[in-house]
Amino acid sequence: MKISTTIEFKDEGAMQIAKKIANSLAPDNLTNMRTEVKNGSVCIHISTEKITSLIATVDDLLMNAKIAEEIAEKLKE
């Protein structure tokens, strides 16, 4: 069975930081992941065969996005 999800970051006021975060995370994308920037949002598409793999991937991705966002905010200061 194929399981897929899309995580969408949508905030037109913060698109520049969303793009930077997405671009900083993209090199770590696995073959089952794709990052897309379009129409005022950043979408990360993930597909896998196991729900546990999907949960682990989303968990890692969101933790890394949080860290990247914190670093970007500190650099603005």
Describe what this molecule looks like in 3D.
The chain has 77 residues and is α+β, with helices and mostly antiparallel strands. It is built from 2 helices and 3 strands. It has one domain: Alpha-D-phosphohexomutase, C-terminal domain (TATA-Binding Protein). Helix content is 48%, strand content 29%. A 3-stranded antiparallel β-sheet has the order 1-3-2, covered by helices on one side. The protein is globular and about 45 Å long. The protein starts with a strand and ends with a helix. 8% of the residues are buried. The mean pLDDT is 84.
CATH topology: TATA-Binding Protein
Average of per-residue pLDDT values: 84
Strand order of the largest sheet: 1-3-2
CATH superfamily caption = Alpha-D-phosphohexomutase, C-terminal domain
Oligomer: single chain
Q: Give Rg in angstroms.
A: 13 Å
- CATH architecture assignment name: 2-Layer Sandwich
Strand content: 25-35%
Number of domains: 1
Q: How would you spell out the order of helices and strands?
A: EHEEH
Structural class: alpha+beta
Reported for the largest beta sheet, the result is: 3 strands, antiparallel
Number of strands: 3
Approximately how much helix is present in the residues?
40-55%
Determine and state the CATH class: Alpha Beta
Distance, first to last CA: 47 Å
**Low-confidence runs:** none
